[in-house]
Amino acid sequence: MAGKPRSAQEELAASLIEQARAQGLALTGPDGLLKQLTKTVLEAALNAEMTEHLGHEKHHAEPGREGSNVRNGTRAKTVVSDAVEIAVPRDREASFEPVIVRKRQRRLGSVDEVVLSLYAKGSTLW
Predict the structure, then answer these.
(1) What is the pTM of this model?
(2) Average pLDDT in the 90-98 region?
């Protein structure tokens, strides 16, 4: 009896876990796969939000465009979900209001809920 086919996200996750195992990388912990993926996904989402906010990709502002607001580097922020430090993009006018990790927000509820749910059910990936 065949099971339900896995989604593209599930296939990708399984592939990443398999590669991590082959490289001797732990799933959790200070240098674990989960922490690295959390950092990468959050930073990519924040950069996408900044691109939408400013109306142009990084390093692709049109000369002579209306408005002077551009990217202004990043600032460090540690989010409490397994203490991941991410680089939050900034703009010169400080008008960027990130949605995925809001200003002054340090705890990511949805990530914590998933982890707690899996822990409560006794689920492990190893």
Answers:
(1) 0.61
(2) 91
